[in-house]
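Dock NAP; give full complex structure.
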Amino acid sequence: MTTTSKHFPAFRRRLPSMAGKTIVVTGTTSGTGSVAADTLAGLGAKVVVLNRKSGRSASSFALLTAAHPDVDIHQVECDLQSFESVRAAAEAVRSLCPEGVHVLCNNAGVMALGDQATVDGFDVQMQTNHLSHFLLAQELMSLIEQAASEAGEARIVNHSSVARLRPSKTLLPQFLERNGGNLGGDGTRVQNMMFGGPRWLRYNQSKLANAAFTAALHHRFTQGGSPIKALVAHPGFASTHLQQTAAHEGGMSSVLSSFGDRFAQSAEDGAMGILSCIGLPEAQSGQFWGPGSGTNALRGPAKPFALESFYDNEETRNLLWDKSVQAVQLEL
Ligand SMILES: NC(=O)c1ccc[n+]([C@@H]2O[C@H](COP(=O)([O-])OP(=O)(O)OC[C@H]3O[C@@H](n4cnc5c(N)ncnc54)[C@H](OP(=O)(O)O)[C@@H]3O)[C@@H](O)[C@H]2O)c1
């Protein structure tokens, strides 16, 4: 079903030219990432999309390049369920982008999957949604720093969710540790229908980690006097492939998924948060962009609000950072 965009056309006209900028976006086979890649290419950016290999990545990339035949667009294979794949993707980006990276948008995500371990032993949701993006950001940091020092700024944009708010506002260490497949099981049918139980707690933790990662980056950049901006967005509730995947994997009922689709705003309207963080000149480091900060902020134009104290505090920032460094085995 295609949902009509209510706010996107006017928002799109506010975005400046992106000519001369190199922008890396993860997860562009559908949804908000697809809208972002198309919009940024339309604004003249060099766009590098990172996707795992599939029919969806081949066809979405063919559509993107056909829509923008004169724009410099590249696809790099990257499976966020594997640190080895992320490291190889970063290597490919380094050779494709000697000019530096002006924006890294960590958009890709999965929701309410079963209690599965990745090949690296971590929860599939936490590794896909946060840990691999943490690794990617570290691997691309020298290119981001290079762009920032030449252009005066660069940005790292993460994609969180209203799900950061519930069921837990506390980031728990076990979800960032090598406990994949041992984090509560798959939940009952009733729990999964009610957005409750362990699948949704694991999603909540991964989306809380996206926000805490932004807070940790912002704190580090501010302390070090860096011109790099760290921002985070959420799309409210947008009609994308996310709900279908969750239903297919047993995380929600297909009735709920198609009902939700009717209630949700369009993928374009949902992409306004990340696109604001990526492109609006007034977007500042340490801001959260989305339809609002509460649990009912599911639709509407993206506006900025402050990072929230339940993850933007020293203990949570340090927990997020130390556990993520340990997980991806970096020496920082
Ligand atoms: N839609 C909403 O209402 C909503 C609400 C809150 C937050 N969000 C967040 O918005 C972001 C974008 O999601 P969306 O709603 O646009 O959903 P979507 O249409 O399902 O897009 C998700 C993207 O992530 C990619 N992805 C998933 N697993 C991957 C992996 N292992 N390696 C590489 N790419 C992978 C998917 O690629 P494949 O084709 O390979 O699966 C797809 O391109 C996510 O971070 C999500 O948590 C969405």
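Observed: Residues 8-327 form a domain with the Rossmann fold fold (CATH 3.40.50.720).
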